[in-house]
Structures are given as structure tokens and as C-alpha cells.
Amino acid sequence: MSWITVTIIIFIYLLFILFLGTAGGRGRERSVVEYIAASRNLGFFVMYFLMGGAIFSAFAYLGGPGWAYSKGAAAFYILGYCALGLVPWWLWGPRALRAGKKFKYVTQAQLFTDRFQSNALSVIIAIVSVLAFIQYITLQMKGSAYIFEIASGGRIPFWAGALIAYVVVVIYVFYGGVRGVAWTNVFQGAFMIVIAWVLGLYFAYKLYGGPSEMFRQIMDANPTHLLVGPGTKMSFAGFSSALLVSVLGFAMWPHLFMKAYTAQSEKVLKQTIVMYPTFAIFMVPVLFIGFAGIMQVTPDALGAPDRILPWMFMHLKFPAIIVGLVLAAALAAAMSTQDTITHAAGSIFAQDLVEPLKKEKHTDKEATRWIRISVVGFGAVSYLVAIFGGQTLVSLLLGAYGSIVQLLPLAVATFFWPRATKAGAICGVLVGVLFNFGIVLNFIPMFWGIHAGIQGLVLNFIVLIVVSLLTKPMDREHVQKFVTL
Amino acid sequence: MSNDQGNDGYGITVFRPGTPPGVKGRGMIFFIILCLIILIQAFYWLFANSVKPFVLGMPFGMFFIVLFIAIEFVVLLILYFAEAKDVSEGGGT
Description:
Mean pLDDT of chain A: 83
Distance between the termini of chain B: 17 Å
Largest interface: A-B, 50 and 41 residues
Shape of chain B: elongated
Radius of gyration of chain B: 19 Å
Oligomer: heterodimer
Distance between the termini of chain A: 62 Å
């Protein structure tokens, strides 16, 4: 009855996280700036894990080994973008932080809306972000559902597995706000890193006698698996454009961008960026797990590539306690991303969609309540999508990424180009987003295998520049506020 | 509210007005280096699309990417300390 032990360990883990998350926000004042931005007061240690938890997602923990297993060298792109993702933030992060302090922003859209003086922009950004978030969270839920399914030997069905972990997340996000999210991420992040290293190396040594030998065997069995280009699972243009769009888009994700407002100081923000590539190094052994699976199980027997990590465990006869801990770590990966996204989605829905559309402004207390209601509402909607929706994990994430990167021209224009106008900003974003959806929905053919997000981005920049130059410049003093931050 | 480039206040503004030329130069150099690192990783297949030799147990392509992650980390570290020195000397950015 080892599955009982495994399931019990996972539930104990969930209770612990629930306690940590709700305790994290206790005794703090009830204001919007506390709930969303932790009163702009987080230090380096917490910021590091808060940002790290967001990337160490089900995508990294289940999708990463899945890619290594099924697509080989294409998985190297994950390392590249984990490492580089925050680098562009060096440009906007500190500026966003200063803007937030000066003009009291707590969300990304508030910054752009103020710069371009347009509530329509706020609504567009809110809708795009919330849609992308639903796709993103759906994949985390599928990740947690796999884990419960495997832990219980199929006794906990998909719908229940997705639900259990998510209810825990919604509860502590509801009560704990961003502080709850941050403190659970510190614990979950540290836990995952330890488990990832132990496992990756363990599999490589135990099954093959070392990583070199493992890769040698893979090469002998399938010479192109560890390469990219024609005849492999990913084309040259596909690899390069996927990496570039991910790097450019990463810090544009609203839940990451708005963390600039939570940092105590610019110093903390920059320290976080400097240390961020270490998370990519933590990903290396995670990929080893997927590579180690290649010689062990055929794709047909496995079903979906994303199952490779849990599969490796169940078939290598580990003691139940170890299996429980590892599955809890994988669950931690899914949850530490779910919480950040759910928190951001609730905040954005309430602050950027509801507030601009209302005639009377809410009081601070009412606004916080609205955010909490949105958190629960968002949770319910994404759960339904996860249960009734389809598609594989990674393609979903890349699809959503394509739309989010379209916010990049807004950041560039806000901080560096005072001549950009309201009309230019709105037209640019609309063209970029619609183009991307056109490609995803197959209305527009793919061009040379280049990532849709990059193509949309080029159009987006062109439209922004041309339309801005054709329209009347905005008030000089107003726009200068943003470039002289 | 005057602008560095001496234009009408609507030109591209990369640095805050009053940024010393040394800080600007350093900013540009690091910007170029980091852009190169990003491009090298994105186009890693131009340089290292091979399995052999194995380095540190990893196939060469994977090692190449990890190597550039390490380089990136060092570059960021240098940039951070260079900027921190400005602040302590009262330059500030």
C-alpha cells in the first residue's frame, strides 16, 4: 500500500504550504499596495525566490525533461532563456521601480496607461494578460494533476488532482497576498533545487554510470537527438526565434514586470537580476532526468512526454517516502507558479479592467476586496478551462508568450521614446496581438518557421513608430516625466 | 526638463539628463556585450551544433550554452559592482 504513504506525504506537504502562505501575510495592513506590492518592501533573498519560483514551473519540472526526452537539443533553449530572461529587465526594472514609487503604480498596465493617457490601453492589456494567464495556469494544473494521478496509482482522477493543489493556492493567495506567495516560494524553490540536483545526477550515475556515458549511448542510438537543424526536432530558425522571443517577452509577463514594484530598492532588483542565471544552472540536472529516460522507455509506452519525470520514479522502485518527497517537489514547481500568476491575474483584473471602467473610485479597502474576489473568480475560470481544454504543455506556453511579448514596444516607448503617442501605442499592440492570434489560429501562414511572436513584434514596432509620427505629439512635460525617471 | 540630445524634448532618450559621459560609455559597452551573449546563445548552432567532445559530462552544444550562462553571470556581476561603486562615490545612475 505504498501509494497511501505517497499520498499522505503529499497532503502533509500541502498543509504545510497552506500554513506558510497564510501566515506570510498575517498582521499586515489591508491595502492595495500591501496586497499587490508588499508595501514595496521585499529584500533580496525573498525577491530572488519570488522571481525564481515563477520560472521553476511545471513547464520547467515536467515540460523540461519532457522536451529533453522527446525533442533532445531543442531543450537547450530552456536553459538559455531561463538564464537570459531577466537581463532586459536591467533596462526597465529600475525605471519601473522608480516610476512606481513616484506615481504610485502597482501594476504594469497602470504605468503604460498613465504614460499614454488611455483607459482603452489598460483594458487591452488586462484582457491579453488574463487570457495568457489562463493558458499558463492551465498547464500548471495539468502538471499537478499528473502528479496526483501517478502518486495514487490512478486513484485520484485528473479533475480532483488539478483541484486539490489549486484550492490550496487560491486560499493562501486570497489571505496572504504577495507576501504569502513570496514566502511559500522561498521554501518551495529551495526544496526543488535540492531535489533536482540529487535526482538528475542519481539517474545519470545509477542507470548509465555517468552523464558522459549516458549521452554517448543516446548519440549511438539516435545521432541527431542532441543536435538542432534540418532532420532534427527543431529547425535553426525555430530555435533562435523561440529563444529570442522568450528572452524579450520574459520580463514583459505582467506578473514578473509588476514585481519591480515589490522590491525594496534598485539594489535589490539588480542583485536579483545578477543572481538569476543561477536558476538556469539548476535546470541542467532537470534536463538530465529527461535524457536519462530515453533508453528506458519508448514514447508509445510513456504516452505524453511530460510524464517522463514521474514515470522514472515509479519504475525504479524507490521507497515510498522518497517518491512522496519528489512528487511534492514537482507539485511545488507547479504551485509556486500558480500562486504568482493567480495573484497577478486577480490584481490585474480588478485594478486594470474593473477600476478604469468604473465611474466612482473604490476606497482602498473596497479595492482590496475586489482583488480578492477576482482571485477566486480567476481560479474558478482557469480550473474549468483546464478540465475542458486540450493541447500539450509546451506549445501552450509558447503560444501565450507570443502575445505577451507584444507589450515590449510599450515599455521601450514609455522609457525611451517621448514622441510615441496614444494612437501609436494602441495600434501597435492591437496589430501585434491580432497577428499573433492569426498565426496561432492558422489564418496567417508561418513565415520560414520563425516564431509568430517575433514576426508580430516587428509589425508592432513599425506600426507604433509610423502611427506615432503621423499623430500629434503628446504633452511634452508629461512624456518627459517618464524618460527622466 | 532639457534633453541630453539637445532636441525638442521628443527625441529618443537613452540616458537620464546629466548622466556623466563615462557612465554612458560603460552603459553602452555592457549593453553591447549582453546583446552579443543573447545572440550567441540564440544562434549557438552556428558554433557548437555537435555532440562531441563531451565536456563536464555534457554534450558540446549543451556545455557551450552553460558556458555562456556562466560568462553572462560574471558580466552581470562586474556591471553590478561597477554601478555600486558609482553610487558610493555619489555619482549615481
